[in-house]
Design a protein that fits this description.
The chain has two helices and no strands. By secondary structure, it is an all-alpha fold. The chain has one domain. Helix 1 packs antiparallel against helix 2. The longest helix has 58 residues. It starts with a helix and ends in a 6-residue tail after the last helix. The model has no long low-confidence stretch (mean pLDDT 79).
Length: 100
């Protein structure tokens, strides 16, 4: 699973956990609901930044993997043609015109 999907799936469960913690703090007269709105802004802002960073990293990683795999394929295809031609020539010569 890529990072972006993992972060996306954690957003709402962690939000519910945050609401629960703030409810406990409200019950204990430590923090009132009307004073907790900056915590929600920080929470959603941090998650938006984290999702954007993960999406960018995943796109860069997939682009690098694509470039690497296409370069490997072209090298492998060229080497295959060169070695296949040499083997055909050798086997034809050794078997007096009969190709395997």
């Amino acid at each position: 699973m890529n990072r972006y999907l993992m972060i996306r799936r954690l957003r709402w469960p962690l939000f519910l956990l945050l609401v629960g913690v703030l409810a406990l703090l409200h019950q204990a007269d430590i923090l009132r609901w009307h004073h907790s709105w900056p915590i929600f802004l920080i929470y959603f802002g941090a998650f938006m930044l984290t999702e954007r960073a993960a999406l960018t990293l995943d796109q860069q990683q997939s682009a690098n993997e694509f470039n690497a795999s296409s370069a490997d394929y072209s090298t492998t295809a060229t080497e295959h043609v060169e070695t296949t031609g040499a083997e055909d020539h050798i086997s034809t010569h050794e078997n007096k015109g009969v190709q395997l």
